[in-house]
Amino acid sequence: MHDIKAFLAGLTHHPGVYQMLDDKAQVIYVGKAKDLKKRVSSYFSNKVKDPKTLSLVKQIKDIHITIAHSESEAVILECNLIKKIRPRYNILLRDDKSYPYILITNQHPYPRIDLYRGSRKKNALYYGPYPNAQAVRETISLLQKLFRLRTCRDHYFDARTRPCLLYQIDRCTGPCVNLISKEEYAHHVQMAILFLEGKSDEVIEVLQRHMETAANACHYELAAQYRNQVSRLRQMQDKQYANVAGGDADIIGLAIQSGMACIHLLSIRHGQILGSRSYFPNLPLYSEANAVLSAFLTQHYLADVTLIENIPKQIIVSDQLEDQDLIEAALLQQAKHQVDIQHAVRSEKRKWLNMAMASAKQALATHLFEKLHVSERLSALQQVLNLKKLPERIECFDVSHSMGEATVASCVVFDQNGPLKSHYRRFNITNITPGDDVAAMRQVVSRRFKRLQDAGAALPQVVFIDGGLTQLKAARDAMQALAIEDILLVGVAKGPERKPGYESLFIGSQAPIHLPSDSLALHFIQQIRDEAHRFAITGHRQQRDKVRRHSMLESIEGIGTKRRRDLLRYFGGIQGVARASLDELMKVPGISRSIAERIFAALHDTTL
């Protein structure tokens, strides 16, 4: 880049992507262009007044050019590079979670309904994507009330000998024990599918006919069930119906304040509101609204394969986009149908857009308040711990288990903006005496900081240990073994009867510190400690349930899938097998005396 004029003179007019690098050869910005020569040259024009562009140009030491076959290919390539490199001058959408769907397993004689994330396969029906898991769970709960479809996994379904609690509370029809015919259950499934496809009117018509038929036949209880279903569907229509062209649309509201932005996405599919979700992208200084929306559209729709398959035909945004035609072309190429991006809308669409914009403003105001609150708490913590400057990174460790079973340790990370959830980590603790919290703490701290050292990653300035002096000493020993000395270790011991506000802080050899119950620093420590506890106990429960779901029969020699299934069916579950005598085990088809003896010995920890 010694001769910028020569470089610009040699640029092509083809579409493509440009990457701008700083003096350390790091990519600081990625952009797309219909015409590479015109677009890149515009950065070095004397007419540039935008502070963001001026700041960027000062740091450019090199530019890499990638020519694309088409304009839409340039948009997709830019999106992939931003997702991979995450340059600091680009607007970055931080949320990368996969979106949930409602799944119906139509290959099973009695299909189940469930929440699903991940790539879609061919052996099931998928409805969504929903903005969040809560919206999926609410819809599944409604479908259970309306059509009483099963939600249990196939292995649980196959092992049942009597109906479960969901049948007792009228949320399931009991297909696991043949309390409903396949034909009648298939009819329930078809009604649910029509509902998910937005055809509620058809479902209501069918249910009304059934209600009239049942009433004419004097089956009044059945007629009342149909009446209640129709009533619930009417209520849902009043709550959820949205009149948009084609029934599918995403409505996107934007709010920008104090250098931060909130994008609120309202999803409508088949004329029904599936839910909404707020995003808080990372913004470079002086970002314009249209640039924020353009970055969101490309990163949101083109970076997730599951979303590409469900790009709506209509996207309504709160501001006009400069590169709207480019984005529409890229979405068309990926979605295989025309995508219309609108901003000047009226009547019903304007009502939904105003709702999205108001939600974005409210969410941003709340987010700004929380961020300000974190700053105040950090300052209070700095004073309490006598730190020379505000800590940029804080970590906290906790250990969770049930009487030594399935021990899991957590590490949560906070920075100056609050929780940094993408940096959270869990550790399965092994090779210790069950229930030894001190050994578990020593192991997790050693493993965590050994990984950080090997990766050359940034170390925290403060580390909180959930526990007293013994846990703190274990963490200190692990740090010393790794020759780490510049991190402040703080033990957080719970107060009497575990009451919040009475915590003791242990720092080195000092006497325990007791902060006032209204201290902002204490509140911040409690928040960090509670988050570590939540993350640890969630991981522990998942691990514990996974272990407990692993049948004890699987470890017995000679017990394969078929014999295991036969045993569970015969006795109604693993507890029934464990209670069975040797003679009762031998009554199961395919279980000889020698196999029965092995089963009995394994389940009773004895020998015969």
Poorly predicted ranges = 239-243
Shape: globular
CATH-level-4 superfamily name of the largest domain: UvrC, RNAse H endonuclease domain
Helix fraction? 40-55%
Secondary structure tally: strands: 18
| Strand fraction | 15-25%
Question: What does it look like?
Answer:
The protein has 608 residues and is α+β, with helices and mostly antiparallel strands. The protein has five domains: 4-84, GIY-YIG endonuclease (3-Layer(aba) Sandwich), CATH 3.40.1440; 103-240, no CATH class; 247-364, Nucleotidyltransferase, domain 5 (2-Layer Sandwich), CATH 3.30.420.10; 393-547, UvrC, RNAse H endonuclease domain (Nucleotidyltransferase, domain 5); 552-604, 5' to 3' exonuclease, C-terminal subdomain (DNA polymerase, domain 1, Orthogonal Bundle). The chain contains 21 helices and 18 strands. The strands form four sheets. Strands 12, 13, 14, 15, 16, 17 and 18 form a seven-stranded mixed beta sheet that branches. Strands 9-8-7-10-11 form a five-stranded mixed beta sheet. A three-stranded antiparallel beta sheet has the order 2-1-3. Residues 239-243 have low confidence and may be disordered.
